[in-house]
Please model this.
Amino acid sequence: MPLTLNQQNAYRASDAASRPRWQPATATGLPLPAARFDLAISSWVLEYLPNPESCCREVARILTPGAPALLPCRRCRSAFCRL
Model:
Protein backbone atom coordinates (compact mmCIF):
# COMPACT_ATOMS: atom_id res chain seq x y z
CA MET A 1 0.00 0.00 0.00
CA PRO A 2 1.59 3.32 -1.02
CA LEU A 3 1.60 5.98 1.69
CA THR A 4 2.14 9.72 1.44
CA LEU A 5 2.26 12.66 3.84
CA ASN A 6 0.39 14.95 1.46
CA GLN A 7 -3.38 14.39 1.63
CA GLN A 8 -4.04 16.32 -1.60
CA ASN A 9 -1.62 14.06 -3.49
CA ALA A 10 -3.30 11.03 -1.95
CA TYR A 11 -6.71 12.04 -3.31
CA ARG A 12 -5.26 12.91 -6.71
CA ALA A 13 -3.40 9.59 -7.01
CA SER A 14 -6.45 7.57 -5.95
CA ASP A 15 -8.73 8.93 -8.68
CA ALA A 16 -8.22 6.02 -11.07
CA ALA A 17 -9.71 2.72 -9.89
CA SER A 18 -6.90 0.69 -11.46
CA ARG A 19 -4.20 2.49 -9.47
CA PRO A 20 -3.16 1.59 -5.92
CA ARG A 21 -5.12 3.35 -3.18
CA TRP A 22 -2.95 6.06 -1.60
CA GLN A 23 -3.51 6.99 2.01
CA PRO A 24 -2.09 9.90 4.01
CA ALA A 25 0.13 8.76 6.88
CA THR A 26 3.09 9.70 9.03
CA ALA A 27 6.21 7.62 9.64
CA THR A 28 5.32 7.24 13.31
CA GLY A 29 1.60 6.52 12.92
CA LEU A 30 0.98 4.13 10.05
CA PRO A 31 -2.73 3.31 9.58
CA LEU A 32 -1.88 -0.35 9.04
CA PRO A 33 -2.51 -3.50 11.07
CA ALA A 34 0.27 -5.03 13.16
CA ALA A 35 2.30 -7.99 11.85
CA ARG A 36 0.71 -7.82 8.40
CA PHE A 37 3.57 -7.18 5.94
CA ASP A 38 6.51 -9.32 4.80
CA LEU A 39 8.73 -6.42 3.71
CA ALA A 40 8.96 -2.68 4.35
CA ILE A 41 10.75 -0.21 2.08
CA SER A 42 11.33 3.46 2.87
CA SER A 43 13.95 5.26 0.80
CA TRP A 44 16.06 8.11 2.17
CA VAL A 45 13.63 9.16 4.91
CA LEU A 46 15.28 8.39 8.25
CA GLU A 47 17.91 11.13 8.06
CA TYR A 48 15.18 13.79 7.82
CA LEU A 49 13.15 12.66 10.85
CA PRO A 50 13.61 14.26 14.27
CA ASN A 51 13.18 10.82 15.90
CA PRO A 52 14.10 8.03 13.46
CA GLU A 53 13.86 5.42 16.21
CA SER A 54 10.09 5.93 16.47
CA CYS A 55 9.77 5.34 12.73
CA CYS A 56 11.76 2.12 13.03
CA ARG A 57 9.51 0.95 15.89
CA GLU A 58 6.44 1.61 13.75
CA VAL A 59 7.92 -0.27 10.80
CA ALA A 60 8.75 -3.18 13.12
CA ARG A 61 5.15 -3.15 14.38
CA ILE A 62 3.61 -3.67 10.92
CA LEU A 63 6.10 -6.36 9.84
CA THR A 64 5.60 -10.05 10.45
CA PRO A 65 8.16 -11.53 12.87
CA GLY A 66 11.58 -11.80 11.20
CA ALA A 67 10.53 -9.83 8.10
CA PRO A 68 13.19 -7.52 6.64
CA ALA A 69 13.04 -3.75 6.20
CA LEU A 70 14.89 -1.88 3.48
CA LEU A 71 15.55 1.58 4.93
CA PRO A 72 18.45 3.25 3.06
CA CYS A 73 19.86 6.24 4.92
CA ARG A 74 23.00 8.32 4.43
CA ARG A 75 23.96 7.82 8.09
CA CYS A 76 23.36 4.04 8.14
CA ARG A 77 25.99 1.41 7.48
CA SER A 78 23.56 -0.98 5.82
CA ALA A 79 20.24 -0.34 4.08
CA PHE A 80 19.03 -3.90 4.70
CA CYS A 81 18.20 -4.63 8.31
CA ARG A 82 16.02 -6.71 10.54
CA LEU A 83 14.06 -4.71 13.08
